[in-house]
Structures are given as structure tokens and as C-alpha cells.
Design goal:
Blueprint lengths: L7 H15 L3 H11 L5 H14 L20 H9 L7 H16 L5 E3 L3 H6 L2 E2 L2 H9 L16 E8 L4 E9 L9 E4 L12 E6 L2 E6 L5 H6 L4 H13 L1 H13 L4 E2 L7 H9 L11 E2 L2 E5 L6 E6 L12 H8 L1 E3 L2 E8 L9 E6 L4 E6 L3 E7 H11 L3 E11 L2 E12 L7 H6 L3 E9 L6 E3 L3 E5 L11 E4 L2
Parallel strand pairs: 3-7, 10-17
Antiparallel strand pairs: 1-6, 2-5, 3-4, 4-5, 6-7, 8-18, 9-10, 11-21, 12-13, 13-19, 14-15, 15-16, 17-18, 18-22, 19-20, 19-21
Helix pairs in contact: 1-2, 2-3
InterPro entries: MvaI_BcnI, MvaI_BcnI_cat, MvaI_BcnI_rec
Protein name: MvaI/BcnI restriction endonuclease domain-containing protein
Pfam family, one: MvaI_BcnI
């Protein structure tokens, strides 16, 4: 008897585990997995999967077996146990796949959040809407749990889709706060048990006030984008078209300007920026840089392992220490004639000064602690995301050739490099995982007793930039 087939990616994942366990070839493992489902070989399963894909409609409604379960009111102890239930038995190959998929989403400039269903959560149709998810919802103006009242009568339901290469299945997202003491934000997606298993990493993407789910543990996004036919590829194509309209409009205007040389409208270093602003009919404003519907326009463009993303002092009104000098006095050390605190802070370990970070998900706060017992300083997630966006805007870097004709400077536009704004929903998760760290650079001079602060500097290893910044795209204008 033939059993119900999971996705092709899940079958291959199971085969990889079996291959490592038995020390056999992948082809042999695939055949053994096929036998478990009642098929004679992997080729027979592939034929069956291809037939099903051909018959599937683009957006079938979820079938009756996916009908949403009644929301279960768990007590605090039960819910805490559910949230502490985590699965770390994913193979190294799957963990690597998830990381590659996250980089692919960032490369495309897509805001997303991740959730990990637990076995109990899948059985009881309940998911915790973590701070990462809630932040993502707020960034996209999708849903605000803080303004939602508790109880079933205040539940919000919206259209959702479960995406694979072979199918785009219509679902429903339920967003609510139960009648428990805290009313912790929760969510559910109808049909999720047939889409993911406990421990999978599932991405949420929002478009047009609807959620799209992709299982990053069973999908290879690079392969999806290379397929001739893929619902995931189609979704990303429509997503890019919708979100790149302003950039395409600006690019076409620059291409038109590149067809001829044009004279500078002023002299000096700002000549090209000022002239481009005028040629593009951008109204003068208080900003030092021209701005085109949210895109910065800069003329020109141009391994230390760690690179600085931005500097940001703590929120002193929320922090026990009220200024940098106070942190220096408590945790600094003598170096020659000076008194310094030059050190790196991370969530992963305490440094020699006993300082480390903790990310409080409930408050959405990055907190600096001493010996895990004394709070030192606080940064809100909103402040850090705002600072990141301010420092790294979506930008067109224009390369132009300059030449003098009859004593007048003329410009010829050559190329543009488009750098998109960072995927800000990933900032706090990267701080929480230790990918992003912070450096204190505080010093009291032995000569004049003055305190100087060059930071705090929030840094990331250059190899990890693609976890936060979309891949730049270059265009020739001629």
C-alpha cells in the first residue's frame, strides 16, 4: 500500500539522513526511502510527484482535513513548556541550507521573519508570535499586537499562502491574544502541520497585507529561482516588480540623461550632485544629499574582518549608567597614562571585563550586563533599527566622466550601482545570535582628564554582510 507522500525536498532530506546513518550512496538511500512509501524506486516517486504537480491549480483552497482547530487555552506552565520545546537534531546539511536561504532572501531585499513550530504546537494548533515576528509585522504595518484586546472575539484573520515550488496553497492566518493572564501574542496558519515538521525554520513574507510562508528547511531558494516553473520563483518575481518600481523609474531617467553630455550648474565638489538633482527635477530640501522618492543619489563610488555599521550610544534615560564616563569608571582599566574601556560586547560570552549582551525579546531591548547580574545600559530595538536605516539608505551611486569644454565642465553619466536598504527585521536576530557585536571605545586622557567616546560601534564580519544587506546591482547607462 502506498503512503501519503511529503514534499520532494523532505524526501531528499530523509534520504540524506539515511545515507549518513548507513554509509550508503544517495541513490540507494532514495530507493530505500521510496520503498518505505510503497514505491518500487525513486524514479517511480518522481513520476508521481510530476503528475501531481501538473494537476495542481495555482491557488487551491486548503482541504477539509486542514480545518483550523479550536484555539487551546493553555495555562502559563503548559505554554512555557511548549516554548522551551526546541529541536536541535537538524542535520548540518539542513542547517547550512537554512543559512543559505536566509542569505538568498536578504540578497533579494526581502523583509522576513522566522518561526520554528514545536511538536506540541503543531498538535494543538498554536504558535508563539515571537518579538522577531511582531517586529516584522509592525515594520510592514501588517498587525499590531499591542493594540489588540484579549479573547477569541478580537481574533484577526487574514489570507495566507503556503508556498512550495510545485504549489501555492491558500490558507488563513489567525492572530490573537488568548484570555490567559498575560495574553501573550499568538498566531496560527491553517494547514501548517502538512507544510512543516517540528523544528523546521519557516519564513514569513508579507505582501499586500497577506502572509506567504516558505519552509527554509526543505526548500533550496537558489534552485527555486533557477527553475523554469516554480511558484516560489513566480512569487519573488512579482514581489520584485512591485518593490522596484521607483528604482526602475529613476534608472530610466538616468539612462536618458546618459545619452548626452550636460554642463555643470555649479563648481566644486558638489557640482555633479547638484546638477543631477536639477536635471531630475528634484526639489531642493534641507538634506545635504539629493533624494528621489526615498532613494538617495550620490555621485561616484568609490580584509579588515569586522566592519562598522553604525555608532549609537545607549538610551541613558532607560539605563542604570547615565553616560559613557560612568561606564568607564565602573569597568575601565589603566593603560599607560590613560584610563580606558576598549572591548567587544556580544551575546555569546562575557568579555574579560565581565560585560555581555542579553536580548530581551519581551521588551525588544538589547541590554548590556555585568556578570549577568548588574544591568549597565539599554538600547531599544526601535532605536537600533532606525539608526541602521539612517546610516544605510537605499542609494544610487552614479559614476560620471568629467571633461572641460571651452572652459565649462561637462558630465557624461557612465554607470549606476544600486545598493538597497538593509533588511532591518534581521538586525535584532543577528545581535541575538552574536553575528553583530558592539565595541566600547571610551577613554579618559591622562593629560587633561577629559573623557572621549568613539563609539559604541556596532560591527559585523564582512563575510556576514549578506545576512543583512541585499546584493548591490550595477547597470551600464550607455
Amino acid at each position: 500500500m502506498k503512503n501519503i507522500l511529503p514534499t520532494e525536498s523532505r524526501l531528499k532530506q530523509d534520504a540524506t539522513r539515511l545515507k549518513k546513518k548507513l554509509g550508503i550512496k544517495q541513490s540507494k538511500a532514495l530507493d530505500l526511502i521510496s520503498h518505505d512509501y510503497g514505491y518500487s524506486s525513486w524514479f517511480e516517486i518522481r513520476d508521481e510527484l510530476d503528475k501531481r504537480a501538473a494537476l495542481e491549480q495555482k491557488t487551491p483552497d486548503i482541504s477539509l482535513e486542514f480545518v483550523e482547530a479550536e484555539d487551546v487555552e493553555l495555562n502559563e506552565e503548559e505554554f512555557e513548556n511548549l516554548e522551551n520545546e526546541r529541536y536541535n537534531d537538524l542535520t548540518d546539511d539542513v542547517k547550512l541550507l537554512v543559512e543559505q536561504n536566509k542569505r538568498s532572501l536578504v540578497k533579494l531585499g526581502i523583509e522576513f521573519s522566522l518561526f520554528e513550530p514545536t511538536l506540541t504546537g503543531l498538535k494543538k494548533a498554536i504558535l508563539d508570535a515571537t518579538q522577531t515576528v511582531r517586529t516584522h509585522f509592525e515594520l510592514e504595518n501588517f498587525h499590531f499586537y499591542w493594540e489588540q484586546e484579549q479573547g477569541q472575539e478580537h481574533k484577526v484573520k487574514k489570507v495566507a499562502y503556503l508556498l512550495t515550488d510545485q504549489q501555492q496553497t491558500k490558507s488563513i492566518s489567525s492572530l490573537y491574544r488568548p484570555n490567559t493572564k498575560k495574553g501573550d501574542p499568538r498566531m496560527w496558519f491553517r494547514g501548517l502541520p502538512h507544510f512543516s515538521e517540528a523544528g523546521d525554520q519557516v519564513a514569513i513574507i508579507i505582501q499586500d497585507d497577506e502572509t506567504y510562508l516558505i519552509n527554509l528547511s526543505t526548500t533550496n531558494l537558489e534552485s527555486s529561482l533557477a527553475r523554469e516553473k516554480s511558484y516560489i520563483k513566480d512569487f519573488f518575481s512579482s514581489f520584485s516588480e512591485q518593490h522596484n518600481s521607483v528604482a526602475e523609474e529613476l534608472l530610466e531617467k538616468l539612462r536618458a540623461l546618459a545619452q548626452r553630455k550636460f554642463p555643470a550648474l555649479r563648481k566644486g565638489d558638489t557640482a555633479i550632485g547638484y546638477t543631477l538633482e536639477a536635471m531630475l527635477d528634484i526639489e531642493a530640501n534641507s538634506s545635504k544629499l539629493p533624494d528621489y522618492k526615498g532613494i538617495e543619489l550620490k555621485a561616484g563610488r568609490g580584509m579588515n574582518t569586522r566592519t562598522t555599521m553604525f555608532a549609537q550610544v545607549a538610551e541613558w534615560d532607560k539605563s542604570p549608567c547615565k553616560k559613557s564616563a560612568e561606564i568607564l569608571n565602573k569597568y575601565g582599566y589603566e593603560r599607560g597614562d590613560d584610563f580606558k574601556l576598549y572591548c567587544t560586547i556580544t551575546t555569546q560570552r562575557e568579555n574579560p571585563q565581565g560585560l555581555s549582551f542579553i536580548y530581551d525579546q519581551f521588551k525588544d531591548e538589547l541590554q548590556e550586563w555585568h556578570n549577568k547580574s548588574d544591568l549597565v545600559a539599554v538600547w531599544s530595538g526601535d532605536l537600533l533599527r532606525k539608526r541602521l536605516k539612517e546610516k544605510h539608505t537605499e542609494t544610487f551611486w552614479v559614476e560620471a566622466k568629467s571633461e572641460s569644454i571651452s572652459g565649462v565642465e561637462y558630465f557624461q553619466l557612465l554607470s549606476v550601482t544600486h545598493t538597497k536598504a538593509p533588511v532591518s527585521s534581521q538586525l535584532m536576530p543577528l545581535l541575538q545570535s552574536g553575528v553583530i557585536t558592539m565595541d566600547h571605545l571610551i577613554k579618559r586622557s591622562g593629560k587633561n582628564n577629559k573623557v572621549s567616546e568613539k563609539g559604541p560601534l556596532f560591527k559585523i564580519n564582512k563575510r556576514d554582510l549578506e545576512l543583512l544587506f541585499p546584493k548591490p546591482i550595477s547597470y551600464n547607462l550607455k
